[in-house]
Amino acid sequence: MVTLHIGSYPAIFVCDHSLAHQALVQKGALFADRHSSVSTGKIDGINKHTINLVGYGPTRRILRKNLTFEILNPFQIRRIEDVQRDLLLNFGGFNILNVRPRVTKVLFYKLWKKFLRIQKSQEDVLIPLIRARKKAKQENLEQDNT
């Protein structure tokens, strides 16, 4: 077993079959959660309430349920894909922002500005979908109560 500290969290490599089985099968719950967010992840994660950053548990189940029920249509999927593509195309460049956030905010202020612009466009696409889902859910509850 080898542990390398890459960035702010350790990467663990298990080379033995029996140790890998023990870690992943017998004690899978210990390793099933996600690591804490790096600096750009904290901004991008909107307080860890996105499907790709939230830990396993009730919040993740709710996010997955909302994602799959009546929220996404082809037009909305294309809008989300465009924003995500923009983020992914620049992902490698944004990784440098995680090294020393206080320093990189000064040295790479244009890159931070670009990251925040992409984040804003992501919010502009996703927040209306979230609000529409909440509104539809509220209307369904009101109809059920009458």
Structure description:
There is one protein chain. β1 and β2 form a beta hairpin. The protein has helices at residues 17-26, 28-31, 39-44, 58-68, 74-89, 91-94, 101-107, 109-145; strands at 2-6, 9-13. 65% of the residues lie in helices and 7% in strands. The protein has 146 residues and is mainly alpha-helical. The protein has 8 helices and 2 strands; from the N terminus they run ββαααααααα. The protein has a two-stranded antiparallel ribbon.
What is the secondary structure topology, with strand pairs?
Elements: E1 2-6, E2 9-13, H1 17-26, H2 28-31, H3 39-44, H4 58-68, H5 74-89, H6 91-94, H7 101-107, H8 109-145
Antiparallel strand pairs: 1-2
Helix pairs in contact: 5-8
Features:
146 residues, mainly alpha, two-stranded antiparallel sheet, 8 helices, 65% helix
| Percent helix | 55-70%
Order of helices and strands: EEHHHHHHHH
How does the major sheet shape up? 2 strands, antiparallel
What is the overall shape?
Answer: flat
Stretches where pLDDT falls below 50 for ≥5 residues?
none
Query: Compute the gyration radius: what is it?
Result: 19 Å
The percentage of residues in β strands lies in 5-15%
- Mean of residue pLDDT values: 77
What's the total helix number?
8
Strand order in the largest sheet: 1-2
Query: Could you give the distance between the termini?
Result: 61 Å
- Indicate the structural class: mainly alpha
Count of distinct strands: 2
